[in-house]
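This section describes the prediction task in plain terms. A model, or a person checking by hand, is given the sequence of a single protein chain and must write out its three-dimensional structure as a string of tokens. No templates, partner chains or ligands are provided. The sample shown here is typical of the held-out split.
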Amino acid sequence: MILALEVANRRPLTWENGVDKTTVAPSQEGTCSVRSSHSPDAITVSFDDDHAVADAGLILAATLAEGLMLGELVDEHVDLGSAPGAANVGDKAMTLVHSALAGGEWIDDADRLRAGSTGQVLGHRVAAPSTLGTFLRSFTWGSVRQLDHVAGQALARAWQAGAGPGPWPLTIDIDSTHCETYGLAKQGATGVDRHGERGYHPLLASGHCCICAKGVADG
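The expected answer:
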């Protein structure tokens, strides 16, 4: 029985290797009583390996951001003045971008980027959630306009790098959105819209390139 168990331990657990017929007699030596819990609230998941990388797929977005020098663009064009969150705006902005790409919906969700060695593949220092909160509260309406300029510069760089449609037709679809805000201290969002809510109305533009359009036209 012991030999069969030792052999099975060296092979995958399958029905063919006789694991289903192997039994282990209970032993009182070197054992202790452990209380079992079936409540998920009692389970804690944590990283204990410094080499582990959470959301490793972010390396693709990080490579693109580095190629466009997106963090440097933020550092160059976003000035928060003497606000508490004015330092290292590029690192903080890129932390929020990567957190959003990883599915983060709240500021605290950015903390997952600090697990293991994840920060080493992102190309920037990962800011703590508390730091990000101070950073975002430092923004004014003018700061948002500075970010608009950063977005335009990044798009221009991506276009020059070959992300444009080339010789093919490009259709741009522009839609209005509504982002509800709370409180009366939000610059640019103090008015009440037709829905009876306060908020921002950013325009979102998406591009669609049809490579087959020229071939259809020529055919």
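For orientation: Residues 141-163 form the longest helix (23 residues).
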